[in-house]
Structure formats: structure tokens, C-alpha cells
Amino acid sequence: MDRSRLCPGLLLVLMVFTRPAVASSSDLLVVLADNGRSYVAQHTLSSDGELLVLDLPAERISLENRFSGPEWLTFSRAHEGNPQRLSLWSGTALTRYRHRYGKGLAQVQAGVFRLDVDSEHEPVRSDELRKLHWSVTWLLPANARLLDFEDSDSVTRTDPLAQQAGPTLATTAGSWQTSQRLVTYRQSGGNLRSLSISFSLTQSDDSGMDTCLASLEPSDRCSADIDGDEVPDYRDVCLPAEAVPGLLVRQGSGDDAGAVQEADTLAARQVSDELGCDAEPLIVLHGVRFQSGQSYLDVAARSVLDRVARALQRDPGKLYELGSHTDNAGRVAHNQRLSENRADAVRHYLMLRGVGPNQVRARGYGETSPAYDNQQAAGRRANRRIELRRLN
Questions:
Q1: Gyration radius of the chain's alpha carbons
Q2: What is the pLDDT of residues 66-79, one digit of tens each?
């Protein structure tokens, strides 16, 4: 694709430089109204060098369009020139709109509907589809029941909500996951498979849509606070569910007592600061984990860093260091470079999400400061960690 066509009349000087490993992604969230046809959608594109192009529904009601990253103005002007398309090759673009499903939503019998996604949502086009990570999520209304879901390479899974655990079911192309009224499909690389979901609807006395669900914009009023620290979850850096799992022994301790005490402290934390953490200057971002030898930020890590970015932007005057640590597998010099790449990847992602470049600095510590026993597999996993240190 010719990138110069994105913004006619503007001469773009593209600087090619080495960036840390942050995968490009397409994240679509659809909130269905009680009638099963009207919806509010939020589509977020993130790119670290690959050209992404998204064609939007022509008859939608646009609610918000937002761009971030070093070239945000270029992409914003391109969208103003062609409102039916989002295009970018760096940073992040978010679009939010209202629309109604048409021919892709069919009533197969009384009260039962089948949605063929291909007929309603245009897939993202990219010059590097193998690097693109897809996520499509539907939030069904309270009067709906999910019946089945399928993609082009899978068989139908019937009545997944009957399984209380909220299963994750893998296919050759990707994976499906359900949790209460949420159903999500994720895929790494390649063209997005043909997706469909089926659900039933019962009559509802309320034809409107909950204002919090309809807005999709994170806010203090609409966000949960699962740990009761008075910091809403959408900007809470320290959620208890991301504590280090299991009984890991801190480096230098003789038994499990220290780990048990640490877990109890996390669970019983009563006082928190504006980040949702305790008053300690050092915060371990437990949800940001890496596979051995890798610096790739997966979906779970990006979800944590989204919260970190929102928290840090509330007070741009506060300065932080992102410290990256590795386990002791491999050569010392390699681990040092790896930790630097990981710290740079996290800092770069936070900048894509709007954090100022002067607010965070990145530093790699290699294997010099293990927090857990490297002789245990769980310890090595925990030592591959990112720490957020307050500097002022």
C-alpha cells in the first residue's frame, strides 16, 4: 500500500529506526443493546511500523476518534479527509460509534439470532498480517443468552455459559473465551477467520442501554473497584488478582514464611496512593510477564500497561523509572541486552498510550538483582519482571 496516499498534499518524511518488540493489534469491542441489533462499538488499532487500514461503516453515528503517538496529527488529518477510514503505521487510533446490525444478523427461529461477523465488520488490512494480533469481544445484554460460537476452522461449541468456569476453547486459528455476558475471540497473525455467534433474546421492559456500557469510556463512576482501595480498576496499577501466584520464596529467605506474609500483605492492603498501590517507592508490575529470551508484550501485558498509562497521565509531573530484570538463564551480556529491550518495549508502549517521553525512563538490570530463587522454575519466571520506581 502507498502510505503517501493517506494524506494528500502532505509530504511525509519517514524515519526508519529500530523499535522494541510491540506487536500491532486490532481490538474490537461491541456492546449490544437489548434489541440485539443496535450496538456501540469501540475499535482500537495499535501499530509499531506496520500499515493498518480500517474501513468504517458508512451509516454509523461517530462518537469519538482519538489518535496518539508521534505521528498522531498526520493520521488525524488523514481521517478528517476520509472519515470512512482509519489508517496508521505508528501509535494508536481509537474510534467509537453507534450502529445497527443489518443483513449479517438473521433470526433463525423465534427469539434466536445468528450474527455473521464478516457481513457487518470490515477486517483490518495490513501489509504485515502475520504480525497482527486480533481481538473481537461482544458484551451481550442482560436479556440475552449465548447459544454457540464458531470460526471457519472450528466446530460449534454449544451452550458455553452452562460451564461455570468460563472456558477458553482453542481452535487451529485462535481461541474463544466466555465470561458471564462476554464472548471473546483472539487470533495471532494471518487473516481474521470468519466468525459467528448465536444468541437468544427474551423480552425486556427497558429498551435503552446502560449509560456506562454505552459510553465505553473508562470513568471513575462506571469502573469497578474490586480491591476497595478507592482507586477505580481502569487506572489501578496494583490489582490483587495480579499478585505473584503460588508460594514463591524471596531470594535469601530460608522458607516460605516470607512469601506467605507478602501474599497476606497484598490481600489485606488497606491504604493506597493515587496509583492504587501502597506507599513503597517500588512497584512490581506482576501482570507484565515475558517468556524466556523474549521481549514481546502480549495481550495481558498490554492490558496492565493500559491501566498504568491512564494512572501516570493523571499527574504528568510525577517521574518514574521502568526497571527490567531477567532470570539467570543464558549469558550475562545477553541478559543485560534483553532487559534493556524489555524496558524499552514497556516505555515505548506507554508512550503510544499517551504518557510523555520525559515522564518515564527505561533501565535494564539484567540478572543482577534476582528477587526469587533462580533454581526454581517459578522463581525464574517471577524474576523476569518489570518494576515501576517513583523518582520524585
A1: 22
A2: 898 889 999 999 99
